[in-house]
Each structure stands twice: as C-alpha cells, then as structure tokens.
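idk why but the lab printer keeps eating my pages so im just putting this in chat instead. protein + pyridoxal-5'-phosphate:
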Amino acid sequence: MSAPKPQPSIMGIDPYVGGEADIPGWDRVIKLASNEGAFGPSPKAIEAFKELAGTLHRYPDGSCGELRRAIGERHGLDPEHIVCGAGSDELIGLLSQSYAGSGDEVLHSHHGFLMYPISAMATGATPVAAPETNLTADVDALLDHVTQRTRILFVANPNNPTGTYLSDAEMRRLRAGLRDDILLVVDAAYADYVERDDYQAGDELVHSGDNVVMTQTFSKIHGMGGLRLGWAYCPAAVANVLNRVRGPFNVNAAAAAAGIVAIGDTEFTERVRLHNKEWRAWTRDELVKLGLSVTDSVGNFLLVCFGDVPGRNAEAADTFLKERGIIVRRMTAYHLSQCLRITIGLEDEMRAVIGALAAFLGSNK
Ligand SMILES: Cc1ncc(COP(=O)(O)O)c(C=O)c1O
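predcted complex ->
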C-alpha cells in the first residue's frame, strides 16, 4: 500500500508540548508554566479587541500598516523594516523555511528555545546545538560550531528557559565572528523585562549589517499569548523575503487591533515590568534560601534546579506542586531534567509556590 509521505525529517520532530493549563479535580489552578504576562493584557487592549467584534466579517489589513507604525513609533524603528506574524513562532518558522533547507545546518545553543530545532527539521535542515557555559549561550562555542553548511544561527536573548543573557558586547562579538551569508536571528521575546545596562535587544545589531534579524512578541509583557502576535525587525532584503512567504492575512484583525493599543500603553507595560522585577527578586531569594539552585534570570521566569535524590528531585517537586493546584514547567525536553521553570505571576501565586516548595523540602516556612 502506498500512502502520502511527508518530507523525511518531519517524522523525526518531537512535537512542541506547551505548558499544561488544567489539573484534573481542580477548578482553578495557579498556572506558572508558559511565561504568560502576570496581569494579562492591558485593559485598553481588551477594549480594542471587544470593539472589533462587529466587523469580524472583514479581512484584516494584510500589510499590518497601522500596527507596524505603532511598533515603529514605540521602539524608534522604521516600519518598512518590520514584518508581523502570528506569534514570533510563525516568524521563526518562516525564517527557517526561507533561509535553510535539506543539507543545511541551523545552529542554536544547547538549552535554546525548542522552536529552533523544530523549525529547522520542518524545513529538512539539521539542527546543531553548541554547548553552553553556566547555562548561558557561549559565543566561542557557537562560533566553533559554524560550518560551511550553517545557514542560520538562532539566539534567544535573554534565553528561555535559562533566563540568562548575552551582553551587547558579546552579541557584537558573535555577529563579527559570523560569515556574512549566515542569518543571525536575535529572539528578543523577553527584552522588555531586562534591566541591565550592558544589554541591547538587538535592533542596533540589525542596523550593523544585512544578516541580522530581531524578533519580538506580544505574548509576554503585553500578555496577549492567546491572540498570537509577534514581529520581526529586518534588513530590507529579509523583510522582502518574509513578505513573499507569509500568508496574505497572517495576522488576524483582533490581534492587530489589540496590538496597536497594547504597544502604546507604556504605563501598563511599565507596571508589569516593575511587578516582575520585584517578584522575580523575591522569589529567587526565597528559592535560594530553600537551598535550591536558581539562574540569575532577567526574564519573567526562573529556572530552578533540584538534586537527583529520588523523592526530592524535580519530578517529585512537580508532582507535589500539582497536588496543590500549581502548574510549573518540567524541563526534560530542554535537557534539564532536574530543573523546573517557574513563571513570575501575581504576588499570591508566588507566595503559594514558595510555600508549597518549602513544604516539599520539609522546611518550616
Ligand atoms: C524565546 C522565545 N521565543 C519565541 C517564543 C514564541 O512566542 P510567540 O508566542 O510570539 O510565538 C517564546 C515563547 O515562549 C519564547 O520563549
């Protein structure tokens, strides 16, 4: 019997598994598994979303003109060099599909975001992982893993799930060490949470040549993961390519309408950032006091690592938390089987997760 066969590399992909949202037997859970913004979307963005309900029969503006202008105004970027997508996931996929294929290599760091190897394999390319140092991307290791077949290098800065980042100087050193025909994709999904003087989101690097793209998302600080909206800031030639391969209406009207308002509501994003700063520091301190090892995350999440003693390891901690209605993220798919990733949520959610972990570890918190 013959049957349609997918491209050979496709069946080698382990499908991406998102954070769980429910626990059987619990009506309301504390969900800290997907790095969603703690406060949800800006109330003004919710209003814009609702107002759209009466015109849902209309196709959206396929060029996302107003949205690109709003993003450009907020970040001081030329809208002509911005391409919007249904989440930055879509843009990562389109970049892989456009610049890599069978026989090519797509480079990323060992604990890099999973969509990089997945999108590479979806195009028939081979993902190549370079080792990290102290759970941080290592510029020398990345450059050492470049071969004649490398077409794209994806770097999340800061990275998910480690929360660590590379300084502007390190990113410039990385760019300078790459051949000009390799596309460097700087995934800045968590850029708005970073408060370090030596950090730059990536737009300045885009200006430095023709082979750097920066992606950002509305799923994190803007709290709009459910609407699927992201954007790429690109050299003109890359924007031209993305505009050829994307669907003509890849961003839906509701996402665009809410996004235009969300990106302009800087008061809201500032409140989210300050909340994240306060509760990330508090949660990290409490975890360290419990004797756990925690990366110095600059994002809206913490990577917490346990020992491998049965009954006290990451799997046991995850089960213990679930029994108390708290969902965090196991990290086995990221080769970090003894770690959990915990999103920074609301104050009571962070107090609940710390209380539960203290009970798990037998501390009298
Ligand atoms: C580093 C990184 N890049 C991209 C994404 C995808 O974001 P989006 O919701 O815009 O597709 C995520 C989502 O978790 C992420 O962590």
